[in-house]
Input
Amino acid sequence: MSISPDKQFDLHRRMVRIRLFEEAAGRLAEANRLPGFLHLYVGEEAVASGVCGALNDDDHITSTHRGHGHLVAKGGDFNRMMAELMGKATGYCKGKGGSMHISDLSLGMLGANGIVGAGSPIAVGAAFANKYRKQGQVAVAFFGDGATNIGAFHEAANMACALHLPIVFACENNEYGEFTPRDKTMAITDIVDRAAGYGMPGVIVDGMDVIAVHEAALEAVERARTGGGPSLIEAKTYRFYNHHGVQNLGLKYRSDDEVARWKERDPIFTLEDRMVENKVATRQQFEDIWTQLRNDIDNAIKFAEESPVPAPDQVLVDVYTQKAGAR
Amino acid sequence: MSTIGIIVNPNAGKDIRRLVTPATHTSDVTKVGIVRRAIVAAAEAGAERILVAPDTHRLGERAAEGLDAVVEIVDEPVTGSRYDTIGAARRFWKEQAGAVIALGGDGTSRDVALGWPDAPLIAISTGTNNVYPSAIDGTSAGAAAGYVATGAVSIDLVGRRSKRIVVHIDDADSSIDDVALVDLAFIDADFVGARAVRDPHTIRAVVAAVATPASTGLSAIAGRIHPVDRWETGGVFVRLGDGGRRVRVPLAPGSFTTMDVAEVRPLRDGEEVTLTGRTILAFDGERDRPVSPAGSVTCRVESSGPLLIDVENTLIRAARDRRFDTGTLSSTGEQHGH
Output
């Protein structure tokens, strides 16, 4: 399939938005201007962008604790995202969710999730509803390699296949579960080897190549949308920063050489180089894009910092269902 | 000392084509099983050294676990790329291996040929398009490799020279030599991307060394119009476009497409074909190298590929030479060694 120049720019823009949002969040956290845990998506941009670039606005995704990238890729608003990370009333969850529960139902983003593996069953629920309503929507569950060792993933994959649901399981295999290398926690190397056990196809793509991810996602999403059932895409990728934060805890669980090798394959710069070589874009165009999006981020930080924190009387609002007759 | 080498491509049989075609998924467990059977059988046939290439998934190590056979995982860099296969083939050449077993698809065999052009090879299909390798059980492959490596069955009797496509690329600021074993395709695309050639409209031309109606993949286009089997000399050139024949082609396993073929031309052994202009070159079914608008690609089909070992013929000769016998029995059932 050919990816049009417009689509190439679209995928590039999604990746740059993620990179800039995450870099800004990292800097703010380092400066103690942003509370809570922060799991940065830098390095993995091609996965969320390539997959979400194949989705319609009303398709659904579920996310992980490393979830900002998924929301940005689905079209998330910088202002409301940054405000949410800072715990402000103008944030996506009115400041009560924070980084690991950020969501935007209007974009079909059903939430980041602090529990490893917990997103997949939610995506299965969305996929079931989508099939029931017959409106052609697809659900995508993002999860990491470590999540496939969790019972919830197995139940979700099994149920999705048993019910032949319109869902794509998008595994971001970044080789580490927190600080533990994948080979310490599973006897297989490729997550796709699990797929056949549920009765769905699984494919591996280069998760540092947004075009490769997008090509796979287009086929998986089309398959789901046209009644072909679930599939699993395993994107081999890498997080440039640590499990959380930028400096992390100073733990040496991977070598500098390894990190440097992956950074050489930076998904954004790789795409830019290729688009310039193909004469689809110029360096100046990319510089303009980065500059414009940097302004957007600066504005978002200003918006968030100037926003109020939630009022004390809001502490229980939106926490429990407000049911008629309930005490 | 009789030596065999085993290469297993951990990435074979897992690409994007499984999403929309019923191509086989080849799991690590399957690959480990094939390698393990090959090791046991090679040792049974008398191979004294069994060298296994290292790989990112440690498939060779896992296959050798707990076996009595003397297996050596050779010390070569592991990069997770095709260079692992190329490097291993080169190493086996240096180690004077009498036979090489390679698990993968057409692309894996191509990488073996890049590392060791004259490799005495048994190619086992665990890939997507498997025109060059064959569906051979590890037990048979290991046994045949063992008998060839020990000299019990002469490679001169059971090895046969396969073909390859020799490719030379002159581009704006580079000059590169490469090879394909089955087909070289010129693709109108901007990216290597997910590698598989999925859009039939992007295929501009194909040069095939092996093209039979039984093939799947790009070589099948030529195979359904002008078949060329793996042993006859020369190849075939196909240019896609209007004005010629319209054929149904299995471009991927279990997936048929209508292709418009403008030109079909047989190629003599060594006859050169040159195409110019911007393209992505697909080697043995996978997009691989971008060529700029200033680039020029020249290729020819030659009978200079790896020496393919005929597994069945090898084992038949071994049987006729009583290589499987451990002795003779008297009429009373008493055994006499020999």
About this structure: Chain B has two domains: 3-162+305-329, 164-302. Chain B has a mean pLDDT of 94.
